[in-house]
Amino acid sequence: AGYSLTPRAARAPGPGPVAAQAKAGRPRGAGSAVRTDSAGTFVRLRLNLAQTNCLKRAPRKQNCRVVENKVGRKPACVACFKFDRSDVPKVLDKYYNCGPSHHLAQRDEAECQAVEAAGRASDSVYLPGMFAFVRGMPE
Q1: CA dist., res. 46 & res. 29, Å (int)
Q2: What is the pLDDT of residues 57-85, one digit of tens each?
Q3: Which residue stretches belong to region Disordered (predicted)?
């Protein structure tokens, strides 16, 4: 089955892996959110996919039609990135996941919140349990 992107506002994410099998789709839109804090820039993308009638291996055609009668197959992709504030931004942390839009939404939200928190001052503070040391075997 092929999939195409459909627009949706950036909001609480959802999802697990989606593999396009015999057919492929074309991009139709995306939702995003961008926030900047003292540690850098956080970007969240949400892409909703729709199955199309175009073959995966066919040359890119612009007249692919969305297959409307697929009940329950509404995959979505969520991607979250945190970039530092340098002149050439580096990725501090990232997370991405694709799958049925109702699966793993809470996990995706928690993972994206952790990505957004990357690089903040609290990351540099020692907390109990951050390091573990194992003594060597006695000889």
Answers
A1: 9
A2: 767 666 788 887 666 567 888 999 999 98
A3: 1-35
